[in-house]
């Protein structure tokens, strides 16, 4: 009997029956609803985000790790497993859930007022209201502290000016979480995108995350009332806490992309004949397969360990950085190696490998580049910040 990737280390024995049931449900949704269409969405650079958000909302996956307001309050591990299954189909689809739940909804849930939570979260959990998270700017990505977007008091209102770039779903969002610099430091706002002065345009010509909407938005004297401000957010710790939530999902999600690449490759090498025997029968092929399977299993174990730590409430930012740095780095290596085993077929969308590889180029960069996470880990180990 052939051992599968998932049975190699019997990792399912580390999951609860509830975790396994949830994973099966999301995997079936991916196979039946998403996978038959994702190649077309990727090639066209168009994805029906609003329709998908409602469908995913009905499954209870949007903001699932949050408590109340239509959110199920699931474990962090369960949320991670959902991210893994969605990214096994496509990173862009995991990004939809991650940005909605771990960035936009989390910002309101953690830093918002009770009125803001009641106003926005139930609709967002249902997928009927789309959110985006505006932190990155054209000149400030890894260094968000240098942001130029400003918030100025004007009587009982605030006036926002600036621009944000590489923002998932900004051109279709109903509410934008906007981080800006004010006299008292960095502050956050929940801004309805219908507010005069708010404009967004989709960014095209992407070769990665094509099954995801990426946009930039501008704030031209956008006037919002004081109750649009997120009262609990003080300084950069506000947006950085949100980023840590999103990074956690990537720790699991990247494993899904790598797993899908390896599963597709195992199927391919078992049927592709080279010099009159299956490609899988060659020592060089088996060496590559074995090395990739070992790295994938290690990444899965790391993700599960971090999930347990997060469920215990003891996880630290540098631990999330370890997971994001390692798992994405290994996932993209696996995708590239799988591409070599598929030969010329590896560059076509008939197989998922080149699509995952292209997507992982973005995943490697967003929510903190590899270099940023290396410095986070380095500072934790040495006690010395090397960011400047």
UniProtKB/TrEMBL annotation:
Which SUPFAM superfamilies did the record assign? Acyl-CoA dehydrogenase C-terminal domain-like, Acyl-CoA dehydrogenase NM domain-like
Q: Which residues form the Acyl-CoA dehydrogenase/oxidase N-terminal domain?
A: 16-128
Is Ribonucleoprotein one of the keywords?
no
Ranges of residues in domain Acyl-CoA oxidase/dehydrogenase middle: 132-222
Which parts of the chain are coiled coil? Answer: none
Q: Which domain of life is it from?
A: Bacteria
Family annotation (InterPro entries): Acyl-CoA_Oxase/DH_mid-dom, Acyl-CoA_Oxase/DH_mid-dom_sf, AcylCo_DH-like_C, AcylCo_DH/oxidase_C, AcylCoA_DH/ox_N, AcylCoA_DH/ox_N_sf, AcylCoA_DH/oxidase_NM_dom_sf, Glutaryl-CoA_DH_mitochondrial
What Pfam families has UniProt attached to this entry? Answer: Acyl-CoA_dh_1, Acyl-CoA_dh_M, Acyl-CoA_dh_N
Q: Which cofactor is essential here? A: FAD
- GO molecular function terms noted in the UniProt entry: fatty-acyl-CoA binding; flavin adenine dinucleotide binding; glutaryl-CoA dehydrogenase activity
- Domain Acyl-CoA dehydrogenase/oxidase C-terminal, by residue range, is 234-381
User: Per UniProt, which keywords does this protein have?
Assistant: FAD, Flavoprotein, Oxidoreductase, Transit peptide
Can you state which reaction this protein catalyses?
Answer: a 2,3-saturated acyl-CoA + A = a 2,3-dehydroacyl-CoA + AH2
* Gene Ontology terms: biological process: fatty acid beta-oxidation using acyl-CoA dehydrogenase; fatty-acyl-CoA biosynthetic process
Family according to the record: Belongs to the acyl-CoA dehydrogenase family.
Under what name is this protein listed?
Answer: Glutaryl-CoA dehydrogenase
Organism the protein comes from: Mycolicibacterium madagascariense
